[in-house]
Each structure stands twice: as C-alpha cells, then as structure tokens.
Amino acid sequence: MQPQTAHKAWQNQPALSEEITASAISRFYSKPLYRTINALVFTIWKPVLKKYVGLAALLAAAPLYAADLVNHADNRPASLDTGAQKRVQVVNVWATWCVPCRREMPALSQWYAAEKRQRRGVRVDMAGVALDKPADVSRFLQSVPVRYPILRYTGNDSTAWMHGLGNPTGALPFTVIRAPACGNYRKTLLGEVSPQQLTQAVAEASAKCRAG
Q: How far apart are CA 67 and CA 18, in angstroms?
C-alpha cells in the first residue's frame, strides 16, 4: 500500500478512543514482535497516526512502555509496567562510567534488602536500569553485586526514555519511586540518593496504596 493510499484509508477509519490504559499498552508491547511493530508504527507512521487518528494517549505513553529493556541476567525482554497492582516500584537508572552511580549502589542494595524485611503490607519492588554495554555491566556487578534485578536499556534514545520516567535533564544517577495504581504517585530524585530519601518516598507511596 502506497503512503497516500494509506493516508486515505486512515481518514476513512472511525476515530479510536484515547482512553487506552497503560496496562493495555504494556501488554501490546510485551509481545515478541513489539520492536518491529514499534519501528513500523511509531517511526514510519507516527505523523500519520497523530494527524488522522486519536492516539494522543498512546503516543504519550509509548516512550515508557515501548522502551527496549532487557533483563541483564538472561537478555530477555523486560518491562517496568506494574499493571493494576497496588505496589511501589523503585527504579534506579545508572551506568558504570557514572561515579555517583557506582558509589550509591552498595547502599541501595543494602537499603532494598532491609526494606523487603519491613513488611509494610504493600509490595515494594526495585530494579536498576543500566545505560551501558553488557560486558561493562557484568564486570561491574562481579565486583559490586546487588540484591535487586538489573535491566539494560538497549534503545536509541535513553534521554527521551528518561523524560518519560520524569527526568527532565537526562543526567545520572536518577531514581524514581512510583506507584501508578495508587493515585499515580511518582517522586523523582536526581543525583546520588540516600537510604533516608528512599525510605521517606516509599513510605509516602505505600500510604497512598493503603488509603486507596
């Protein structure tokens, strides 16, 4: 189908609802062919979709849920989507070349181990997302093991992806505490963080979950 023909076809389609939930978007992009679909739709046809179809909500959510994330341990696709579950998620974005990142990770690991023993009544998960090469990540983790899962961002625009998580500058380290199903709570912490900051933010998010 030629682009002009495709344009007309889209014009003749009924408007799609913009009330597309984040969980539905995540399920769509968790399928095996999501990278191909993302390339075809959001790279080639994004201007067409944005002009002719009501997909503003989908396009806005795409940078976060369509991101290229893999588990470092097995290189399988990963996601930060929490669905409808009332839980708190701590995401620490880092790189081996970032000195403050390397410095804070042992404390983050100890904090997470202690936090898991708190039993707040609300599930608390944590993940580190590395913006780095697999070999460099493996080498670092051999000397500084952590107790939370490590993911890797493998896409082409980490700055845009971090913007979707609430980082306006793209600087590292960057930590976000989020609870999408609990009043859409989100707190971003730029720079090196302390265990006290994490504890306070997680307590706030957990309170939101219990209240809801």
A: 20
User: What's the pTM value of the predicted model, to 2 decimals?
Assistant: 0.70
Q: What is the CATH number of the domain that holds 125?
A: 3.40.30.10
Average pLDDT over residues 82-97: 91
Asked whether residue 144 falls in the same domain as residue 175, the answer is yes
Residues 130 and 180 in one domain: yes
- Domain residue limits at 35: 20-54
Contact of 185 with 179, CB cutoff 8 Å = yes
What's the token pair of residue 4? 């002009």
Under 8 Å between Cβ of 18 and 57:
yes
> Could you give the C-alpha distances from 5 to 8, 16, 43, in angstroms and in order?
5, 19, 18
How much of the chain is in helix, strand and coil states, percent to nearest 5? 45, 15, 35
Spatial contact of 64 and 161, defined as CB atoms under 8 Å apart: yes
Dump pLDDT digits (tens) for 31-44: 444 444 444 444 44
Token couple for 168: 């306006």
Please indicate, yes or no, whether residues 38 and 134 belong to a single structural domain of this protein: no
Q: Phi first, then psi: what are they for 178, rounded to 5°?
A: -135, 150
Are both 28 and 109 inside the same structural domain? Answer: no
